[in-house]
């Protein structure tokens, strides 16, 4: 019997999933597996913004995320950790965003892997690149 794994899904991975791309199919397999899947609330906002700007359904995106993962709210501790991580990583990865820092902070809090295709995460041991 396979042990479940813990993942934090970032905006890149959710967008690929919503598009139904090959990378999205990899995300789908993890969502359908026996895994613990989380999404940072900042990521939810990021995905909704992207789909609205693309003319896609915000309701479908919202339901896909909230039905397939547990949304982790932002609190003062997580914000502090995200701020520290943002400052540290930004020294090495020039355009590492604050939203990326929240994903990284969530993954550290949950001891989870980050499911992503975002090149900002490519050299991080916490990342699984789709």
UniProtKB/TrEMBL annotation:
InterPro entries: PIN-like_dom_sf, PIN_dom, VapC_family. Mg(2+) binds at residues 10, 100. GO terms for molecular function: hydrolase activity; magnesium ion binding; RNA nuclease activity; toxin activity. Toxic component of a toxin-antitoxin (TA) system. An RNase. It comes from the Archaea. The gene is vapC. Belongs to the PINc/VapC protein family. Residues 5-123 form the PIN domain. Keywords: Hydrolase, Magnesium, Metal-binding, Nuclease, Toxin, Toxin-antitoxin system. Coiled coil: none annotated. Signal peptide: none annotated. Its EC number is 3.1.-.-. The lineage of its organism: Archaea, Nitrososphaerota, Candidatus Wolframiiraptoraceae, Candidatus Terraquivivens. Its cofactor is Mg(2+). This is Ribonuclease VapC.
């Amino acid at each position: 019997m396979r042990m479940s794994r813990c993942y934090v899904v970032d905006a890149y991975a959710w967008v690929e999933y919503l598009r139904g791309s090959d990378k999205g199919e990899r995300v789908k397999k993890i969502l359908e597996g026996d895994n613990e899947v989380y999404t940072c609330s900042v990521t939810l906002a990021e995905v909704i913004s992207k789909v609205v700007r693309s003319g896609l359904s915000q309701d479908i995106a919202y339901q896909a995320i909230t039905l397939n993962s547990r949304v982790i709210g932002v609190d003062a501790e997580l914000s502090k950790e995200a701020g520290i991580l943002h400052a540290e990583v930004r020294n090495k990865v020039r355009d590492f965003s604050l939203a990326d820092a929240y994903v990284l902070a969530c993954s550290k809090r949950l001891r989870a892997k980050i499911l992503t295709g975002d090149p900002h995460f490519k050299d991080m041991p916490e990342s699984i690149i789709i």
